[in-house]
Design a protein that fits this description.
globular, Pdz3 Domain, 4-stranded antiparallel sheet, 9 helices
Length: 357
């Protein structure tokens, strides 16, 4: 079951990514030869307009194939004939759609599971927040100069500064209040400042944790959208942070996973949550899909040829040079980038297998 779920998740986020390229290409009047769901030999296809829509035998991802030059439809242009800004838009549209998918899922999650804000609801006796003068009703807006919009921001910054002194900015009665404190090591091994933040009950009752939210005010639609946006930004932020840690060799390979490792995570998460019912398992799976979609969006923006970010980087160079890079040179750079990406992918796959043994 976990393999099927993983394939579905990866296929959805890749197809959404390729759909972004597809829509942008159509808007730029670029000829799209084929839009495919899946890979490998074609199962069936339907020609609509000038594009062939196909379903392929391997349920892994998909692709959007555009004509490079001289398309058969003379009213359209090839991708290389589009101007640099159009090509940049088409390249950026894929990652953008991954962020949109993550936003939609996370907004739905907020509506279905409730939200945890950055406003202090109460204090825990004997912890630093109480001694520092933090009060119920205060809104935590910054930790060591970093903005805090949701509870996840606060938890992340605490995990990055375990046992260190923190400069915290609070919003109280329309004014900023600065406090300093050092988190305390709790019995569960985490460093905590000792605040419980305000909770809002789900806007839509789908049977998730109903008893726990009894008497808690519901989140509004606007609050759910805001929480979805902030959660999406949070995922982008921690993905970018993780990439920086990986490229600077500051993270253990035990913390890095590829598709094989993701399948293991999906399997463990599914087995744990299905015990509590289908709703819990479903919400956990789509939450993982949001995380992976945001991951794919960020990774694709890394400026390595063969990735969308690499293409955008080359197009930016083109705007400075005022001259298009020859298809031969771009092809060589893309091949080198592809080889690097594939080599890294193989390395990650081997690392995932080693962790399983």
């Amino acid at each position: 079951m976990s393999i099927i779920i993983t394939l579905v998740i990866f296929t959805v986020i890749v197809v959404i990514h390729e759909w972004g390229h597809f829509i942008a290409a159509k808007k730029c009047n670029v000829y799209v030869e084929e839009f495919a769901v899946g890979m490998g030999p074609k199962l069936f296809g339907v020609k609509k307009g000038d594009t062939l829509y196909t379903v392929r035998i391997l349920p892994v991802g998909g692709f959007c194939r555009m004509s490079d030059e001289d398309p058969p439809d003379k009213d359209k242009i090839g991708f290389n004939e589009a101007n640099v800004w159009q090509r940049m838009l088409i390249a950026a549209a894929g990652p953008f759609m991954n962020f949109v998918l993550a936003l939609v899922i996370l907004t739905f999650m907020a509506m279905a599971t409730g939200i945890s804000t950055n406003t202090v609801a109460s204090l825990i006796e004997g912890y630093p927040a109480q001694a520092a003068g933090i009060e119920a009703g205060d809104r935590i807006v910054k930790v060591n100069g970093k903005n805090v919009s949701i509870r996840s921001d606060l938890d992340f910054y605490l995990s990055q500064h375990e046992g260190e002194s923190l400069d915290i900015v609070l919003r109280r009665n329309g004014h900023n209040v600065n406090v300093q404190l050092v988190p305390k090591l709790a019995e569960d091994g985490r460093y905590l400042i000792g605040v419980r933040t305000e909770q809002k009950a789900p806007l839509v009752d789908i049977g998730y944790n109903s008893e726990a939210f009894r008497g808690v005010p519901k989140a509004s639609f606007f609050e759910c959208v805001r929480d979805g946006c902030c959660s999406m930004v949070f995922l982008v932020k921690i993905t970018a942070y993780g990439l920086k840690e990986m490229f600077t060799m500051q993270v253990s390979m035990d913390e890095v996973s590829g598709p094989i490792g993701v399948t293991t995570v999906v399997d463990e998460s599914y087995r744990e949550t299905i015990k509590d019912g289908f709703i819990y398992a479903f919400l956990t799976m789509i939450n993982l899909a949001a995380l992976l979609s945001a991951n794919l969006g960020v990774i694709n923006l890394v400026p390595i040829p063969a990735l969308d970010g690499g293409k955008i980087f080359l197009y930016l160079i083109e705007t400075v040079r005022r001259k298009q890079l020859s298809p031969e040179k771009e092809g060589i750079l893309t091949f080198i980038g592809f080889a690097l990406v594939m080599g890294f992918g193989i390395f990650i796959a081997i690392n995932d297998i080693i962790k399983l043994t």
